[in-house]
Protein 1
Amino acid sequence: GAGVSQSPSNKVTEKGKDVELRCDPISGHTALYWYRQSLGQGLEFLIYFQGNSAPDKSGLPSDRFSAERTGGSVSTLTIQRTQQEDSAVYLCASSSRPRVDTEAFFGQGTRLTVV
Amino acid sequence: GQSLEQPSEVTAVEGAIVQINCTYQTSGFYGLSWYQQHDGGAPTFLSYNALDGLEETGRFSSFLSRSDSYGYLLLQELQMKDSASYFCAVTATESNYQLIWGAGTKLIIKP
C-alpha cells in the first residue's frame, strides 16, 4: 500500500485477555518502530526493528509485551494479560535506511481500551 | 543518556509568528526532526536538520545549532489549522539511528 497500515483501528478488550496489533509498513522500508501514546502525552518508544539486526526492545514496559517482524515486513505487537494501564494508542512507523534523514511515516494507530 | 526538552504548551494569535524550542542531550548526534500531530491523528513529518542553520519550507522553518545542542521550529502567519502538538526528535549514532522523541509542545492558537 501507499502508507503504513495498522489494524485494528480500535480494540476493546477485557482485562486479562491477550491482544495482537498489526502493522504493515511501507514496502521496502527496513526500519519499523512501535510507540505508545497515552491521551495528551508524547510518544513512548516500545521497540525498533532495523533490517535483519536484533531488535531494540529496550522500551518494552514489561514481559507481557512482545513484538515480532516476519520477513522484514509485517510486524505484530502482542500484549498478554492486558491491564487497564495498557490502554493507549499504539502507533507504528516505518522509514527507509540507510538514509537517516528520511522521514518516518506513521500509521493511524490502534486505540486500545482495556475494560 | 539521551534527553530532549521542549515547552509543554505555547499560545499564539492567528497571523502571528511563534517559535518552539528544543534542547537535546545525546552522544553521536546526527540530526533533528520536527513532527506535527493533530488531535486524534498520526504524527506527520515537517522538517529535518543535520547541519547548522535555518531550513525553510513555506510558512515553517527549522533551525539547528549543533554547538548549542539546540533547535527550534518557527511557524509564520499562523492559521487556526496549525493548532496541534509539535514534537522534536533526535537521530543519534548512540541509539543506532533510532528516533528519540521529545514530549511534545501543544500549540494553542487564538483568533
Protein 2
Amino acid sequence: AQSVTQPDIHITVSEGASLELRCNYSYGATPYLFWYVQSPGQGLQLLLKYFSGDTLVQGIKGFEAEFKRSQSSFNLRKPSVHWSDAAEYFCAVGVSAGNNRKLIWGLGTSLAVNP
Amino acid sequence: EPEVTQTPSHQVTQMGQEVILRCVPISNHLYFYWYRQILGQKVEFLVSFYNNEISEKSEIFDDQFSVERPDGSNFTLKIRSTKLEDSAMYFCASRDSPLNTGELFFGEGSRLTVL
C-alpha cells in the first residue's frame, strides 16, 4: 500500500541554522513527490516537486529536496532558516488509480524557529 | 495570481445538521478535489471530480457526503447529517492537468466544528 512517513513530528531550530526534514515513501511505481507548507491560518502551498530527472530539486523560499530512490526518501532542506519558515510541512506522493490521480500525505512536521 | 477560494473559513454546527462547504476553483481548471484533515492526523483524500462526475472517492466519502458543481464556478461539498467525527479542516483543490505531474492548488480550508 502507498504511504508516506515523516518521522519527525516536531522540530525546533535556531534562526540561521540549517534544516532537514525527513520523508520516506512507499510506492511501487515511479513516485511523484511533493512538499507542501502550511502556515498558521493558511492553506497548503506547494514548495517543490519531483517527477523525474535531476534528483535534487529546487523550490520556493530557498528550499530544496533530494530524491534518493535507494532509500525511498525525499528529504527537504534549507541551508539557513528564517523565522518566517515556522510552519507545518507536509510530504506527499502522487498516486494513480485508473485515470485518477490523488495525493497520499505524511503526518506533517511542525517547525518552530527560535530567534 | 489565481487562487482557490473557500467559504466559510469556519463553521460551527450541531450534530445532525446539514453543512455545505463551498469552493471556487481556479477558473481554467478541470479536476477538483476535497481533502480533509482531522486535528492531529494526516490530510486525507475524500473525493475527486471531473467532467461533472465523481472520478474516485475514498472510504470516508460515504452516503452522508456529496459533491456538486452547480454552476461553472462553484464546487461544493455537502454533509447531510453531521457527526462529531466530521469535525476537521476541509481543503478544496483544483488542477488543470490530468497528469500526476500537474500541480494541485489548494484553498485555505474550511474548518468545521460539530458540537
Protein 3
Amino acid sequence: QVHLVQSGAEVKKPGASVKVSCKASGYTFSNYAINWVRQAPGQRLEWMGWINAGKGNTKYSQRFQGRVTITRDTSANITYMELSSLRSEDTAVYYCARDGYNYGSMGDYYYMDVWGKGTTVTVSS
Amino acid sequence: DIQLTQSPSFLSASVGDRVTITCRASQGVSNYLAWYQQKPGKAPKVLIYAASTLLSGVPSRFSGSGSGTEFTLTISSLQPEDFATYYCQQLNSYPRTFGQGTKVEIK
C-alpha cells in the first residue's frame, strides 16, 4: 500500500527554521513528484512547491521563494521541506502529497492522489 | 497567480439532496482542475481530476463538469459521509492554487 509518513509536530520561535520530512513507501519513489501544501487554521489549502523525486528539480510558489527549500533523499525515499525565517503566520499544518498522473491522448493530467497525515508547525515566541 | 473562487462558501443540506458547488477561475485553466474532499483534522482526498474524471473508488454520486473558467462539482444524493469541505484546485499553471473551500453541513 502506498503511504506517505510525515515527521512529528514542531514548535519554533520566530526567525527560526523548520524542516519537515515525508517518507514514501509502497511505490517507486523516483517515478513521482511530491508536493508540499500547507493549511493555516481555518484557511484554504496553499500550495508551496514541488520536487520531481527522480530528477530532483523543483518548483516553488513565489510567495515562499527564498524561504522554502524542498529536497529529497532517493536512498531513503524521503522528501524534505525546509521553511526559514519563520513568522507567526507560518503556523499551519504542512502536508506532503504525491503527484498522481494520467498521460492520455487528450493531455497529461496531474492530481494529488496520496497525502501524508500532516505535520503541525507552531511559530510562537 | 490564477485565483479560484468557489460558491457558495457554505451550504446547509439534507441527506438525499442534490448539491452543486461552483468553482470560477480568474483565467482559463482548460480542464486542468481537480476536486478534493476534506474532513476535519484529516488530509484532503482527491475525488475528480481533469475536471470530470472520477478517481477509482469514488462513489458515482459525485460528478464534475466544466472547462475554461467555470466548473461544477455535483453530489447527486448527499450521504451522511459527504458532509465535509470541498476544494477545487487548478493544475494548469504554477502556483497550483486552491479555491477557498465550500463547507457542506447537515441541515
Protein 4
Amino acid sequence: EIVLTQSPATLSLSPGERATLSCRASQSIASHLAWYQQKPGQAPRLLIYAASTRATGIPARFSGSGSGTDFTLTISSLEPEDYGLYYCHQRSIWPPAFGQGTKLELK
Amino acid sequence: EVQLVESGGGLVQPGRSLRLSCAASGYTFIHHAMHWVRQAPGKGLEWVSGISWNSGSKGYADSVRGRFTISRDNAQNSLYLQMNSLRAEDTAFYYCVKDNGPYYDSTGDWHFDYWGQGILVSVSS
C-alpha cells in the first residue's frame, strides 16, 4: 500500500503570500497525484490531477508539480477563500490513498 | 451542474444496519464509476468502496469488507451503501463521489472529480 505523507501539518500565512504544500509518496507513483481542497463544513473539491493539470474552474494561482515520489501544490498569492485543508491523493497503485492533510490557516 | 445528494444517515446502535443513498444528476450516470469515501470527525479521508459503471466489479476497504455492500441503479441514477454490523469506528461523514472514468479500480490519472456534501453516520449506544 502506498503511504502519502504531507508537510507541513499546518501552514500559517497571510493573504498575498505564496503557499507551498508538499506530498511525498512511499514509492513511485509517476505523475498520478491529485490535490483536493476542503473548507470547514464542505466536501472536498478537486483542484489538480495528473500532478499538474488544473481541474475545471480552478484559478491559475493554483499549480501542481512533481513526479515519482515528491509533489508540490503551490498557491502563488493567497486569497481569503484559499484557507482550509488540502489533501493529496493517489490512484497509481490500488488501493487509493490520501495524505493526512495540510491545514492552511490565516496568520 | 453535477449534483450528488446523500441521504439515509443518522444515529444507530453498534451491531445495527443502515443504508445510505446518493442521488446523482447533471451528468450521464451510467458512464461513470462511483465511490463512497468517509471522514471521521476531525480526521482525514478514507476510501470505503467503489463500483464500476455496470456493477460488474466492486471493491471495498479492508476495514469494511464483509460488512458493507455497494450497489447502484443506473435507471434511477442512484448509488447505495448497505452498512451492516456497524461499529463505533464507522462513525464518520460519508461522501458519495463520482469517478472521472468507468471502472472503479482503474489506476493512473483517474480521480474523484465531484463529491456530495456528505452525510453523518454516528454509531453509538
